[in-house]
Specification:
The protein has 220 residues and is of the alpha/beta class. The chain contains eight helices and six strands; from the N terminus they run βαααααβαβαβαββ.
Length: 220
C-alpha cells in the first residue's frame, strides 16, 4: 500500500475510549432514569457521534432529546470523559509502532465523530497533536458517518495543506473500525483498512483490507 495521506478514525483506532464514553453517558443519564448495558451500547450506539448517539438513545428509550437539550448534555458528557481520560489514555495495540513507521512517509489526518476537545486532549497527552493535520471532528460536519462529509472535508484540507502534492481521494487511506466508517470512506472514494478492534471481522468485509490489530500491519 502506497499513499500520500493516512486518515485515522479516532475511537477504536487510536484509543479504546468507547468504555469511557459509555461510562460518561451513564453518569449523565443517571438523574434522568436512563440506563443501558454494554450489549445495548455495542449493538446500537458504537461509532456514533454524540448527536446521533442521543437520537438513537431517544428512539430506543422513548425519550427524544431536542437540539437545545443536546447542547447541554454533550458538554456534560465531555467533562466526565476528560476527567476519566486524565487518569488513563488507553492506546490500542500497534498504534505507536505504526505511527513511528509511517510518520515520515506520509501525512496523517483524523476524521472522527468524537468531540474536538476530547481528540486534542488525548493527542496532546500522548505528544502526538502536531502529527495530525487536519483533524476533522463532529463539530466540523452536519452529518456523521456513514455520510462522507467528514472525509470529503479532510481531503479538501489535505489538498490545501500541501498544494504541490495535488491530494485526491485516491491518494488517501482511511483506517476505520466500524461498518459506518468504512461506508463513509468508500462514499468519499477512499480505500479503507479496517481494524477489528470494535466489530468482528465478518462485519467489516466491505473494507479493502481487514486486520485484527495495527500491530499486524506490514509495510509493502
Amino acid at each position: 500500500m502506497t499513499f500520500k495521506a493516512i486518515i485515522f478514525d479516532f475511537d477504536g483506532i487510536i484509543t479504546d475510549t468507547e468504555p469511557v464514553h459509555m461510562r460518561a453517558w451513564l453518569e449523565v443519564f443517571k438523574p434522568m432514569g436512563i440506563s443501558f448495558d454494554k450489549d445495548e451500547y455495542d449493538r446500537n450506539y458504537l461509532g456514533l457521534n454524540d448527536r446521533d448517539f442521543l437520537d438513537a438513545v431517544g428512539r430506543l428509550h422513548g425519550r427524544p432529546f431536542p437540539a437545545g437539550e443536546k447542547e447541554v448534555l454533550i458538554p456534560k458528557k465531555l467533562e466526565k470523559c476528560l476527567a476519566l481520560l486524565g487518569r488513563n489514555i488507553p492506546v490500542l495495540p500497534g498504534v505507536e509502532d505504526f505511527i513511528e513507521l509511517l510518520q515520515k512517509k506520509c501525512m496523517f489526518a483524523i476524521c472522527s465523530g468524537a468531540n474536538k476537545n476530547e481528540v486534542h486532549f488525548v493527542l496532546k497527552k500522548l505528544g502526538w497533536e502536531k502529527l495530525f493535520d487536519p483533524i476533522v471532528t463532529q463539530e466540523d460536519v452536519q452529518r456523521g458517518k456513514p455520510d462522507p462529509e467528514g472525509y470529503d472535508l479532510v481531503v479538501k484540507r489535505l489538498a490545501q495543506r500541501s498544494p504541490s502534492q495535488d491530494i485526491s481521494p485516491d491518494d488517501c487511506l482511511a483506517i476505520e473500525d466500524s461498518p459506518k466508517g468504512i461506508a463513509a470512506a468508500h462514499a468519499a472514494g477512499i480505500k479503507c483498512l479496517a481494524i477489528s478492534n470494535s466489530f468482528p471481522p465478518d462485519s467489516l468485509s466491505e473494507a479493502d483490507w481487514v486486520l485484527a490489530s495495527l500491530s499486524e500491519f506490514e509495510l509493502e
